[in-house]
Design brief:
Elements (H helix, E strand, L loop, with lengths): L2 H15 L6 H12 L5 H14 L3 H15 L11 E6 L10 H11 L3 E6 L9 H8 L7 H11 L1 E5 L10 H5 L8 H7 L7 E5 L6 H10 L4 E8 L6 E2 L8 E6 L5 E6 L11 H4 L5 H12 L6 H16 L6 H14 L1 H12 L4 H16 L2
Parallel strand pairs: 1-2, 1-4, 2-3, 4-5
Antiparallel strand pairs: 5-6, 5-7, 7-8
Keywords: Amino-acid biosynthesis, Aromatic amino acid biosynthesis, Glycosyltransferase, Magnesium, Metal-binding, Transferase, Tryptophan biosynthesis
Function: Catalyzes the transfer of the phosphoribosyl group of 5-phosphorylribose-1-pyrophosphate (PRPP) to anthranilate to yield N-(5'-phosphoribosyl)-anthranilate (PRA).
Catalytic activity: N-(5-phospho-beta-D-ribosyl)anthranilate + diphosphate = 5-phospho-alpha-D-ribose 1-diphosphate + anthranilate
Amino acid sequence: MSMEKAKEFGSIIARLIHAQNITRNESKAVFSQILRNEQSDMHQGAFLAALAAKGETAEEIAGSWEAIYELDTVKVISETEFPLVDNSGTGMDAFKTFNISTAASIIAAANGITMAKHGSRAITSYCGTIDILEELGVDVECNTDIVKKSIEKAGIGIFNGMSPKVHPQALGRILSQISFGTVLNIAASLANPALPKYGVRGVYAKEMLEPVAKVMKEVGYLKAIVVHGVTEDGTLGMDEASNLGETFIAELKEDGRIVQYSFTPEDLGIKRGNRDEVASLNNLEQEAIRMIALLNGKDLGSRSDIVCLNAALIFYLMNQCATIKAGFNQAKEIIASGKAIGKLRDWVEEQNHSPQKGLDKLEKLTQKALAM
């Protein structure tokens, strides 16, 4: 690395420290250097920290996404009858919940929506989507061909954002070395190898709703819902729709408009949830057991309600229901029918180098869940 190149990179960091924004092209160029490991670890960490402290703009996020997708993402073309949909959260939120988006995605897939997820292990929490799915028996370290097959045959699959089989150059290296939230929580999560055109994206702060909706429009999404929920007193936020307090939405419409609105549980006729019930347990096996119980219809409390609310957003996005309230009731019916737990079994079987090993793992946990 030349001294001149280091100084140029350092000047970008200095601008961010002084709360100055950088352009999309500058962001792409800087992230390209990070992905190629052309700057020192000190500079790379300083840039990510300075950008997070300033707060990312839509242009900055789009630039970093562009670098990650072009330089460090395996490209996958899925052959499916219906369009691909993603559903994930950014992490970095103040209130740590159990893995709601994963359960909601399974319910959506059980109702015929083709889910192409892209997630990572926990960075700012204990249980990320990759962590919980690995515990349930899904092969999260497989190559992209197996994920593609799972999407096509089971209607759901997940690309591991920290795997070199998905992002072969650098993303896993970077994510494995940081334990605080950065722009990568947004940009990297959008670097989905299958490039879905529809998505529900949870964000860690209300201020990120419109910027992330704009970014999703920039990177090719046709429709999207960006969501941020809060606890009952409004003091803590989550990257999910909330049954504890108000939920704020930025919706990207098919005509390119971004519409913002909010709702409370009462607006949808949903009982306010219990904060302790939806909080993370910080125990992977127990989280997996509780998710199986939920998908089996054994949990009819706050956890089930918040999952069904988030599944309803996917149904609403894909025109499977006229209102979010109707989608909530639809999700409840899917769980009661047994289709949700059946879809999880399909997923474990299809996204696996060793299907029987995964199914045996799921069965052991299921027995524990049924004994609750």
